[in-house]
Amino acid sequence: MTDTLPAPSTRQRALLAALRDCGDEMSGQQLHRSLAGGASAMGLATVYRNLRQLQQKGMVRCRHLPTGEALYAPVEQDRHHLTCVDCGETRPLDHCPIHGLSVPQDTQKDFELLFHTLEFFGLCQRCRDRQQLPS
Amino acid sequence: MTDTLPAPSTRQRALLAALRDCGDEMSGQQLHRSLAGGASAMGLATVYRNLRQLQQKGMVRCRHLPTGEALYAPVEQDRHHLTCVDCGETRPLDHCPIHGLSVPQDTQKDFELLFHTLEFFGLCQRCRDRQQLPS
DNA sequence: CTGGATGCAAACGCTTTGCAAATAG
DNA sequence: CTATTTGCAAAGCGTTTGCATCCAG
Fold it and tell me: CB B114 to CB A122 under 8 A?
């Protein structure tokens, strides 16, 4: 029995473990695939259902690619990205530019802050070059 | 051939105008609906196609709701949000907490920065209350 | 025995793409 | 006349939901 969690879902532990092992972010589909076959395999729906719960517990954060795909990562992984609006490639930043940054106090009174996403968008070198040379 | 803009699409002006008039962000679907019937009506595909180009020109930015829906706004509208990971409600922040913040120089060398998104996620009062009272 | 969690597959909704017609230059 | 852009409708895709089943307590 777990002492802390209302519903000590083993699935959630598995998902979190997978994310931590990976060391990077993964999509729902990737998580599903990565767990498939193993001891903690679970249906795709279950993956998503539990990812949502992990988010609500503030243990997992997620961001969306321009494609609409959602990527998940452990919250302790405070990583942000540069994303090319053309080819969609994303590249991690070395440091979180707003580490420790806070939201105005008054907004937090009735809002329990769990995590944030900060993403930068622009054009990567390759796509910029490609635009200049239409032919 | 034009040397400034490959295709000075009137559609793009219309989209930008609609976004500015609205004063808030709109989804592709909303834009499509809002223009429908009017003089600058256009197909849904065209809306998306031009929104993408506006993004690549750095005139429009977009963020994704937890639902995966994309919301667009003029870049000059430097607005950020609190989003509830439970009910999905989003509330705008009064000020941009990172106004004027910059990405490390060396990352920008080969990346043309166009816009950023900064979103905070958590639980709104209502959903927090609801979680505490399981029954 | 009862409520919640799961799997599967169907359903969803937003976005993209194929292709032929319309338009610009 | 050639290169683009557009519309429409079909396809794509990740995600969510319905429902019967399974499991924990």
Answer: yes
